[in-house]
Amino acid sequence: MGVARGGLVGLGAVAACALSGCHLDLGSRRDKPAATDAGVGTPARGTPFAELPRSPGSRIARPGASVAADRVTEPSPRAETDVRPPPVSVTVPPPAPAPAPADIPLVAALKDYADGRPAEAAGHLSRCDPATRDCLARLLPAAVDAYGKNVSAGKREEIGPLLSKIDAARNGLVVYAPLDVAKIELASQIDGFSRYRPLPVRHYYAPGDLAEVYVELHNARPAPVGPDGAESAVRLRWLLELTDGRDQPVTLIDGEGRPAVTTGRYDAPPTRGPVRDCHLGLRVVVPRTPGVYTLSVGVQDANRPQASYVSRWLMLRVGRGP
After folding, report:
1. Are residues 138 and 227 in the same domain?
2. H-type helices in 21-155, by residue range?
């Protein structure tokens, strides 16, 4: 049995050597060197199998070729980043300036007046209503004239024409302005427009005294009078109302104790120039009963019948006072 097992081992070894093309010397088995720590059957130096890989991943040079020639050179990751295209210079033209906004019609008209083109200026004002257009056609040239003059010098040849243009514009506006009761005061004497002697606000009348009331009005509209219409006059309507401290109506009486006239009409003297302001001088007999009363004065422009009355009031104190 032992001979048979040894024969089989020998046949296997012969077959392995035949397949690999090596020469097996069976008779010299005992003369082989012993295994070393480096491994059994280490290849001899100088043979192709002497250059075995020392570590996983190492390359083996082909017989007859150097290791350096067979080595694959991998590109450096830095070489790719170092290669940059040359900078390209691009010139961007500046944006075109935006077109200037068109002037509003008022500014355009002012420029035309300043440049001596009144016809073109009137064209810019064509959108306005006739009254506004007429007013601006007087004010804008006046503004141009004022800009080019030394008003503080007060030269008559410069200020006079300027005032005439401003007055013409104002006279055109007064026609559309509502009547304004600018002032109402108790007075001891009335001599004319803005010519009166005012009484203290807390003045006390004796029962039955005569109170004079000064009423100042602005923006009255004169109407032409006379056959040729060269003159004009202001016409006003007025009414009076008196109430006591409980807001109850009180009947006004005259100097003879009869009910006084509480409405009336005032026709100003005709004038050839524009009338801008006027006044009323009214007289009221104060009640005979002491107390504090409210006197209301209403005024209407008779040249404008459709206009309503404009009212102002003041206090009437009757008695000895504090």
Report:
1. no
2. 67-70, 77-82, 105-114, 118-124, 130-147
- Quote the DSSP letter at residue 322: -
Residue 303: inside a domain, yes or no?
yes
311 plus 184 within the same structural domain: yes
* Strands of the 277-285 sheet, one edge to the other: 195-198, 180-192, 210-218, 277-285
Q: pLDDT tens digits, residue range 47-96?
A: 555 555 556 655 655 555 554 444 555 555 555 555 677 787 888 888 88
Signed CA dihedral, 217, 221, 224, 225: sign only: negative
Residue 120 token pair: 């073109």
Domain closes at, from 127, 159, 174 = 174
The one-character DSSP state at 51 is: S
pTM for the full predicted model: 0.62
* Cβ contact 108:124 at 8 Å: yes
For residues 180 and 219, is the Cβ–Cβ distance under 8 A?
yes
Length reported for the chain: 322
